[in-house]
Amino acid sequence: MAKKDKNEKTVDKDIMADEQNAPVTEENKEDQGLSAEDQLKEELAKEKDKFLRLFAEFENYKKRTAKERIELFKTAGQDVVSAMLPVLDDFDRALTEIQKQESGEDMTETGTRNELLTGVELISNKFREALKSKGLTEIETAKGDLFDAELHEAITQIPAPAEELKGKIIDVVEKGYRLGDKIIRYPKVVVGK
């Protein structure tokens, strides 16, 4: 008889465990003290919360991808524009050399030199305008400007020729450029110490 009681107790425990793990039904809801309407309101609130979170996450995703796209468009041509900067420097050097030669030559070849200078200037201006239309701007740096480590790259320091030039730019070795708001090449300068 003791065995029979033990078996009945085990069966009773199994039934109780099954009832606790059983899915919630209308009868179970009423047993738990919640009406069907309250249960539906609770489920609706959970679903609304889930929907709002999902919607907010999607909105954040859209904003993030839109921002990334704008950045990509702004800097998409950065590699190409950066590769063109040495050509721009070469135009500046060519113009400077043609002007030097023009001032030192006699009058017989002046017409040819003027035409050469005009042609190179036209090509240079057209090239600059094409790069400008893509968002390239020159960083204005002149002799005598105050050196700013955030904006300039000092390649060397030399003794200042005058006291007022200490800590200021003495020479601009290479021009700097921005593409949009981003600096793609810092101006290389010589600073007085």
TrEMBL record:
Location, primary (coarse class): cytoplasm
Keywords, alphabetical: Chaperone, Cytoplasm, Stress response
InterPro entries: GrpE (IPR000740), GrpE_CC (IPR013805), GrpE_head (IPR009012)
Cellular localization per UniProt: Cytoplasm
One GO CC term, this protein: cytoplasm
Pfam families per record: GrpE (PF01025)
GO biological process: protein folding
An MF annotation (GO) of this entry: protein-folding chaperone binding
Region Disordered, residue ranges: 1-38
Biased composition (Basic and acidic residues): 1-16, 26-38
Domain of life: Bacteria
Family listed: Belongs to the GrpE family.
PANTHER family given in the database record: GRPE PROTEIN, GRPE PROTEIN HOMOLOG, MITOCHONDRIAL
Subunit record text: Homodimer.
Record function comment: Participates actively in the response to hyperosmotic and heat shock by preventing the aggregation of stress-denatured proteins, in association with DnaK and GrpE. It is the nucleotide exchange factor for DnaK and may function as a thermosensor. Unfolded proteins bind initially to DnaJ; upon interaction with the DnaJ-bound protein, DnaK hydrolyzes its bound ATP, resulting in the formation of a stable complex. GrpE releases ADP from DnaK; ATP binding to DnaK triggers the release of the substrate protein, thus completing the reaction cycle.
Protein name: Protein GrpE
Protein encoded by which gene: grpE
